[in-house]
Amino acid sequence: MHSLLARAAELGAGYRAGLAERPVAPAAVDLAALRSSFGGPLPEAPTPPSDVLEQLARAAGPGLVATAGPRFFGFVIGGALPAATAADVLAAGWDQNGFNAVLSPAAAAAEDVAGAWLKELLGIPAGASTGFVTGGQAANTAGLAAARHHVLAEAGWDVERDGLAGAPRVRVVASEERHATVDRALRLLGFGTRAVEPVKAGPQGAIDVEDLRKVREAGTGPLIVCLQAGNVNTGACDDLRAAREAVGDAWIHVDGAFGLWAAANPDTRALLDGVELADSWACDGHKWLNVPYDSGFVFCARPDVHAAAIAYRAAYLTGAGEVSGMGDLTLESSRRARGFAVWAAVRELGRDGVAELVGRCCRLARRFAGKLAEGGAEIANDVVLNQVLVSFGGDTDALIRKIQDDGTCWLGGTTWRGRRYLRISVSGWSTTEADVDRSAAAILRLAGQ
Description:
Elements: H1 2-17, H2 31-38, H3 49-60, H4 82-94, H5 105-122, E1 129-133, H6 136-154, H7 159-162, E2 171-175, H8 180-188, E3 196-199, H9 209-217, E4 223-228, H10 240-247, E5 251-255, E6 280-284, E7 296-300, H11 303-310, H12 339-374, E8 378-379, E9 387-391, H13 396-406, E10 412-416, E11 419-425, H14 433-448
Parallel strand pairs: 2-3, 2-4, 4-5, 5-6
Antiparallel strand pairs: 1-7, 6-7, 8-9, 9-11, 10-11
């Protein structure tokens, strides 16, 4: 086992060492050939673990995308930090189940401490509960489940016992530019997407507070309001303080997959003024904190409500009846101990390092926008965080394909306000000014063709 794990670490380290210079995406990937490399008939006999590892590395190599590298600008994801990566390798070796403190006291302690650090960085009240979930989707679902429990309990309805059939109608108010994971959470929670009462968005995609007030006053009954920290296209943040004033004591859930990290930097903190006034918050770890995948966070200002919406009880569960901070706050019973990598990332960076990472990505996004604008591109948004919307006119999707095939950098596209754009997200800890300049030059070269 020792030599096997050492070899796995060696292979992973070798891959990471070459990220800065390898093409970001493999050119002309032959998926059929990849499947063939992984495929063949079901093995009849066992294979030595060392052979399995080498076969896996050979089969996967041609199909790996350098999302962990410095010039991947798609989907608002950054590559995992060195300490976080190493901690995740160690966590795999330890093979801990992160369900509760009985199964892993170490995992529980790491999540307790890392959760407290996260709340301090993000401006969330210290008394809020923290659930270590898979990502933004699970965080939105868990946060809205807590919201559903609370607003219906206030109306005299036990939704966990009686379901939604016959329950008072819950009003869900959200921006017309909300993230799609909010809609999927509403589907999974039984509300359905028709429950949404949409609110207009302002010029940059932040919610129109006056329209929010009008929508709020247009009806009565249990109310959940979904706000956004970081519009997925523009990076714009809703005015959280004004929104709280507009909706009174309604439950406010903040979808802050990447935008919540703005609170960690003094220069961007004002964008999240009033964040502490919300009731639940969703955040991703593999975005600006740069931890490995399968890592997100849901916070709830009312830990008892959070647990009531999520927890379950069984006779075999030791410690049943207590809010564990783990199994009672997430949807999985068998899960990896996510807190080790999060703890390592925050320990590696510290408060100053997290602030610097957020600030640097914002500066690099502005640099990207400036370089492309100098080359004739239209920049559609105010670059307030790490998002840049770019248009050269013409066939945007054809240009995106050229950029992805070129391999210098990787970015995707989006549709915003009826137009197609290149969408650039600067989120990686290893990205430098040289990476931005090199990528901008490649984009301008390809656009010029």
